[in-house]
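Please review the protein record below. Tell me whether the encoded fold seems credible here:
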Amino acid sequence: MFDVVTIGETMIRLSPDGYQRWEQAKSLQIHIGGSESNVAVGLARLGLRVCWLSRLTNNDFGRRIATEIAAQGVDTSRVEWTDGDRVGTYYYEEGSPPRNGRVIYDRAASAFTQYAAEELPDELFVAGGAKMLHVTGISLALGDKSRGMIHDAVTRARNAGWLISFDVNYRAKLWSPGEARKHCDRLFQEADIVFLPKRDAKTIWELPSDADTRNSLVALAKLRSGKLTVTTMGSLGSAAQLNEEQSVEPITPVQPVGRLGGGDAFCAGFLYGWLKHNDVRTALRWGNASAALKYSIPGDLPLFQKNEVEALVSESSEPANFR
């Protein structure tokens, strides 16, 4: 039925215009943002069949979120609706070097945090229901009920013969490195594909701070028994290891306009490349190209066109030696 199913919370994002600080703002931009729905939108715009599962409050904000995601070709028909709870919100002040962007979360007791395992659609988690389930560490950070639901979904997907994709997606505002490792380690070890930035590998799994990319990948692959492990390095590009084989790919440096969602766009591009070509290097190129294009787009959603991504993939250079 679907190529990929994703599960996660999407919030309303409020931001001052341009690069203004909150104390300057007289008007606000409204976007929607959620890691898993960003990935879903990217995959759908690349032509895959995608379903997004979540739990939303049946009010104007919840309906706006579902409508924007569905407008990009993502199936939202299995979203769980509630008349209670609330839609999560976050506030983002865009930064420009040397000033970093700032995030303030207001998502406690949101509708998604009450998404229970028994509310997952039974008819979806069957053989042939999808090829892959994609989840992130953000959902694991949102509380016991959310964690239980994600682990139940992973078990159901695995039993149905789906692949499991896991983006660690560490958020320091949600939990400590120790808590993240405690609750992410099971999925980190068991998932067929894991995504994480190089910095998170060192922060959470305590890799040596001076380890270069190749040695970091070797260490991560050992922890994961050789399963496909993908690491991103910002302006330096990305790298991956599957069993004993390593691949590295540079990215064309860009001046970001829309910083948020770049990692999600990378995941979408990589998963597309992997599902379509079953080749790590090709998947990295699709991931890099998708991320580069997302950086040129304001907001959280990767509103690129497939032919734009293809054009960048075809221009990809030979792999570099990263450290």
User: Anything to note?
Assistant: DSSP finds ten helices and 14 strands in the chain. Residues 4 and 132 are 5 Å apart (CA to CA).
